[in-house]
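Support request, please re-run this one:
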Amino acid sequence: MNEQGRNRLIEQALDQLELFPIREVSRLTGVNAVTLRAWERRYGLIRPTRTDSGHRLYSQADIDDIRRILGWLERGVAVSKVGSILARGHALAGQAGDTTGAWLRWQQQIRQALQRFDVAGLDRLYDEVFAANTLDQVFAEVFMPVWHDLAAGQGEYGQTSEWLFLDQFLRGRVFARMQLAHTPRSRTVLLAALPGLRHELELLVASLTLGSDDVGVTTLAAGQPLQELALACERLRPDALVLLSHQPPTAEVCRRLVRLVAGLHCPLLLAGEASEVAQESLAGSPIACLGAQGSVMRQRLRQFLAGQLDT
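Re-run finished. Output below.
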């Protein structure tokens, strides 16, 4: 086969694999080529394939990872910490096996419904996904990845409107489910957001995720002053106070948390990606870390309330 024919076969194969050159990836994600190369060389966050001449080619999975990276960076997570978060997500996807394909198909259908602003279609998909998955999977594997991708890619025309449409839809559905679950439990925790949590939906999803048959969750509105949480705990008498954040706590926030613990009559726990990042630095402190994954957070919360989990 001559060189021209070989190149044509390579191009056809690339078309079938939907591989994108770095210039196109920069256009799709808003991340310049210099940054993409740095993420690859310095942190190993993305591993594009290479042509014989050394040019980088990115798959759709690579592009999805880039958008997830942007989402974590927007939340304040250091780029050096993003690799472990991505690896955990990939490991969970690998454990899910064939289920991952169904999640991706649902995500694609959600995107199509959003492009049409089709609330009835979203309703049908929401019910369908809930019928086939656990609550954790509904949000962590299907709806929230789309929400995060749209939040990270709002530079493209129409994506901000689609993100707002999805955000409003999910807040309504999650709030309705919280109301249905609002029955007395043997234990109650108070959930609030640390300063810097920008979106109410993340707080509402965490409230659903933390609740169980024996643990009820009372959620304070986003924007609750940190210095008044002791007052809220004094009046509501929860078994524990859980603070949610996806940003690493600053030194000033850590100092404020230590002062808060001194004025509380219940334990203080940290949940979300912040607890993953800060777990080592908080070891031995009065603040316990619940993690960021739904089932892990629930298990650790139950263990802590039962006195089986140390800080």
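The chain has a mean pLDDT of 83. Residues 159-180 form the longest helix (22 residues).
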